[in-house]
Amino acid sequence: MIETVDAVVIGAGPNGLVASVALADAGWDVVLLEAQDEIGGAVRSAELWPGATADLFSAFYPLAAASPVIRRLELERHGLEWVQAPAVIAHLADPDVDDCAVLHRNPSDTAAALDRAAPGDGDAWLALFAQWQRLRNPLLEALFTPFPPVRSGARLAYRAGVSEALQLARMALTPVTRLTRELFAGEAARLLMAGNAMHADVPMDAAGSGLYGWLLTMLAQDVGFPVPKGGAGKLTQAMASRARASGAVIDTGQPVTEVIIRGGRAAGVRTAGGREIYARRAVLADVDAPRLFTELVGVQHLPGALVADLARFEWDLPTVKLNWLVDGGIPWRATGARKAGTVHLGTDMAGLARWSSDLAGGRDSDLIFALLGQMTTADPTRSAAGTESAWAYTHLPRERYGPVDAEQVIKRLEETVEQFAPGFHDRVIGRTVQRPSDLEAANGNLHHGAINGGTAQLHQQLIFRPFTGLGRPETVIDGLYLAGASAHPGGGVHGACGWIAARSALAANRRLGPARRRTSRAVMTKIYGRLDPS
Ligand SMILES: Cc1cc2nc3c(=O)[nH]c(=O)nc-3n(C[C@H](O)[C@H](O)[C@H](O)COP(=O)(O)OP(=O)(O)OC[C@H]3O[C@@H](n4cnc5c(N)ncnc54)[C@H](O)[C@@H]3O)c2cc1C
C-alpha cells in the first residue's frame, strides 16, 4: 500500500516532535517515523533498577524551560511538571577542601556566597544578572528564531542601546578564561561560569566559550536547572501527546533508510522494513547532517561543493556516561554539593583550561572534568527515600572514543568522585555504563557519543551550521529540511531547530512559497554551484 501524507518527519527527538506539532497545528497531515522502539531521542528515561528511574541522556532543561518555542506548546497540559533541586549547581575543584562554589536558586544567596569568597563578586554577580533580566526576552527570541534574527535582533539592539550591544557582541566572542577574569575577582564565580561553558565543546580559551558560560549561568540563575517530575522521558512524552492531540501520527520502530528523490525534490521516504511514504509537501529530518546527506539522501544527489563541506563537518566530543543508584546519597566532603542538582566536578580554572585544551588537541588528559546529576535531590520521585539516582558524564578526545580509552576515563571518573566523596564506592548499589558506542546504538544521531549534533564552535555556527551556507533549514534538495540539532541554533533541548524547519516548510507552501523557493535555490546555486548533479 502506498501511503501519502503532507509531511514526513524523520526522528522523534525533541526537535522532530516540535516540528510535528507545528506542522499538524497548521492542518497538515503528518507522519513521524522513529527508528527506535521508543520516542524521545536523547530525552528519555528508564527504570534501570527496581523502583529507580535514570535519565539515559540529557537530564536538566534550562533551555527548554526558557525556550519561547517550548513554552508556547503548553506542555503542562500534557502531563509535564517541572521540579527543581534546592540548589542549582555546585562546582567541586579541590578534593581536600570542604567548601565549594554554589549557584543558589535565589540570586541574593548566590551573591552573598560569592562575596564571602571574594569581596565585590556579589555585586558583580547581581549586576550581571540584572543586565540579563533586562535583555533576556529579545535575546532568547533572537537565539531561537530563523537566522538572521531580524526583528528580535532589532528589539535586542533597541533594548540594549548601541554601547551595550557592542559590549555584548564583544562578550560573545571573548573566551571564558578571559571573560571571567574581567568580571570577577575570585575563583568561585569564575568556576561557576567556566563549568557552564564546558557544557559545550568550545575550548576554554577559544572565542565563543564565554558566551556559552554566560548564557547557561544566567539561565541557571533565572529559571534554575529544572527536571521533569518522574524522569526526562516525561518531557518528550508530553511533546508526543501534544503532537498527537494536533493529529500527528507517530510510528516507532521505523528506521528511515532513504529519502526518495524525484526530479531533484524530496518525494518521500523508505524505511528499513520496505515501507514507502510519500510527502506531498515536505520531508523534515531530525537526523544528523552527515548521515542524512551521505546515507539517506546519497552523495550522488549532492553538488560537489556540499560533498566537500560534508568531509569538513566537525563532530563534538565523544562522551562516556555512568549511571548509579547510591544508597544514602553521595557523601560529598563539601556540604554545599549535597543539595545541588548539578555538580561540576574535578578541577579548578587552570585545570579546566588544560583539560579542554588536551581534548581539543586529541590528547588523553590526566585531569578530568565531569558533569554529575543528583536526580533524586532534584526530584524525590526518581528513587526511594534515602537513595540517589545519579549519573555523570565526561568527554574523550575526538579521535579516542574506543573501548580502551573509554575504560580509562571511566576509571578516572569514578576515582574522582571517590576523592571528592570518600565512601562513595561502598554506597553504590546499582551501576550501568554508556560508552560512546552504546550512546550511538541507542540513537544514531549521537555519533561516538557526541551530544550536540556537531561542534558548537564558532566556525560551525550560524551561517556555518551545519556547513557554510545560509544557516537555514532548507537544503539543496527541494522539499527536504534539516530539523535536528545539526541545524541552527544547534544542540540542547529548546525545540528551535524543529520549529524553524517546520516554519520554513510551511512558508514554502504558502502563496509566496514558489518565489521563496526560487530565491532560496538561486542563493544556494551561488554557494554550491549547480544543485542537481544527476
Ligand atoms: C548524554 C547527553 C547529555 C545531554 N544533556 C543535556 C542536558 O542536560 N540538557 C540539554 O538541554 N541538552 C542535553 N543534551 C543535548 C540534547 O539532548 C540534544 O541536543 C537534543 O536531544 C537534540 O534533539 P534532536 O531532536 O535534534 O535529536 P535527538 O534527541 O538526538 O533525536 C533524534 C531522533 O531521531 C531518530 N532518528 C535518527 N535517525 C533516524 C532515521 N534514519 N530514521 C528514524 N529515526 C531516526 C533517533 O533515533 C532519535 O530518536 C545531552 C545529550 C546527551 C547525549
Q: Work out the helix count.
A: 19
Q: Give the terminus-to-terminus CA distance.
A: 29 Å
Small molecules (ligands, ions, cofactors) in the structure: flavin-adenine dinucleotide
Secondary structure class reads: alpha/beta
Strand tally = 18
Global Rg: 23 Å
Strand content is 15-25%
Helix content: 40-55%
| Spans of at least 5 consecutive residues with low confidence | none
Main β sheet profile: 7 strands, mixed
Determine the mean pLDDT: 95
* Backbone shape: globular
Word description of this protein:
The chain is an alpha/beta fold and 534 residues long. Helices cover 41% and strands 19% of the residues. The chain contains 19 helices and 18 strands. It has helices spanning 14-25, 62-66, 68-71, 107-117, 121-143, 150-173, 176-183, 187-197, 209-223, 233-245, 289-297, 304-312, 349-360, 375-378, 403-420, 424-427, 436-442, 496-508, 513-528, and strands at residues 3-10, 30-33, 45-49, 52-55, 82-83, 87-92, 101-104, 227-228, 249-251, 256-262, 265-271, 276-285, 319-327, 340-345, 370-374, 387-395, 428-434, 480-482. Strands 1, 2, 9, 10, 11, 12 and 18 form a seven-stranded mixed sheet that branches. Strands 7-6-14-15-16-13-17 form a seven-stranded mixed sheet, with helices on both faces. A two-stranded antiparallel sheet has the order 3-4. Helix 7 (176-183) packs antiparallel against helix 8. The longest helix has 24 residues, at 150-173. It is globular and about 65 Å long. Bound molecules: flavin-adenine dinucleotide. The site of flavin-adenine dinucleotide has 41 residues, from helix 1 and strand 13.
